[in-house]
Design brief:
Blueprint lengths: L2 H11 L37 E5 L4 H12 L3 E6 L3 H13 L4 E5 L5 H15 L4 E4 L15 H22 L8 E5 L3 H4 L5 H21 L5 E5 L15 H5 L13 H12 L10 E2 L10
Parallel strand pairs: 1-2, 1-4, 2-3, 4-5, 5-6, 6-7
Helix pairs in contact: 2-3, 2-9, 4-5, 5-7
Pfam families: adh_short_C2
GO molecular function: oxidoreductase activity, acting on CH-OH group of donors
Protein name: Short-chain dehydrogenase/reductase SDR
């Protein structure tokens, strides 16, 4: 067993009780800090000279993806809501890899902002090859009766409407060989009684991924998804009460939460030529859950 794996196991099984009072959560306030810097990852030029847009790229999985892509040679455009300190930290890490990074703040549930993301990316880098739709929010409710119209609409706007908006904006700029990668969730397959609307959006993302793949395959554009299990990101302390956070991830076969750095390689694979014979598929870094999806 490697030292890196042992580190993940210790950190993922020993999360103290904590809670944040705002969504989206802030990585700067988490303890322990997630492993999202891809410190042990060594790139090999798989994305050399490409440009990637990563929504929700300020922290958590998005941060790991942005840094991994940079280590593989890509320049990065990060879209995020208002977590400015987290986003700046990610930008600095990308630039340490010798790549360029721009930050674009706003609400991906707004179609005009999604168009702005693509416009700023193309005006800065003059091309784009990879879109990672990763932004999401979730809100715990005990009953469907507690989910009001405002929450329902906002969750769907952030989690799935944004993907339609982003793809529509970026598609005219994508050429053969481009990649679209969507973040879904294990909850799309096994459900979650307390995250009903969130789970519904994640199921929609699976169907969206499969259908968009079929629509774009003749253009040579590959569309795939990643369905993480319990990963230690700012969304967790911003969603659950302290007791739930303290037990987070212990119900999967590996008995621990995963780290963002353990998920990002899935995105690298799907963004690169390595997945030349794969489209419409979902990868499952979820701690050993068998979901047969």
């Amino acid at each position: 067993m490697t030292n890196e794996t042992e580190k993940y196991e210790k950190k993922g099984s020993d999360i103290p009780k904590q809670q944040q009072s705002r969504q989206p959560g802030l990585q700067t306030e988490m303890h322990p800090q997630p492993d999202s810097g891809m410190a042990e990852y060594h790139g090999s030029g798989k994305l050399e000279s490409k440009v990637a847009i990563v929504t929700g790229g300020d922290s958590g999985i998005g941060r790991s993806v942005a840094i991994a892509f940079a280590k593989e040679g890509a320049d990065i455009a990060i879209a995020y809501l208002d977590e400015h300190e987290d986003a700046q930290r990610t930008k600095e890490e990308v630039e340490k890899c010798g790549r360029k990074c721009i930050l674009i703040a706003g609400d991906v549930g707004d179609e005009k902002f999604c168009a702005e993301i693509v416009e700023k990316t193309v005006s800065t880098f003059h091309h784009v090859e990879i879109l990672v739709n990763n932004s999401a929010e979730q809100h715990v409710q005990e009953s469907i009766l507690d989910i009001d119209k405002a929450q329902l609409e906002k969750t769907f706007r952030t989690n799935i409407f944004s993907m339609f908006h982003m793809v529509k904006a970026v598609l005219p700029h994508l050429k053969k060989g481009a990649r679209i990668i969507n973040t879904t969730s294990v909850t799309a397959y096994k459900g979650s009684p307390h995250l009903l609307d969130y789970s519904a959006t994640k199921g929609a993302i699976v169907a969206f991924t499969r259908s968009l793949s079929l629509q774009l395959i003749e253009q040579g554009i590959h569309v795939n998804a990643v369905a993480p299990g319990p990963i230690w990101t700012p969304l967790i302390p911003a969603t659950f009460p302290p007791d739930k956070v303290g037990d987070f991830g212990k119900n999967v076969p590996m008995k621990r939460a995963g780290q963002p750095d353990e998920v990002a390689p899935c995105y690298v694979f799907l963004a690169s030529q390595d997945c030349s014979y794969m489209s419409g598929q979902v990868l499952h870094p979820n701690g050993g859950n068998i979901i047969n999806g």
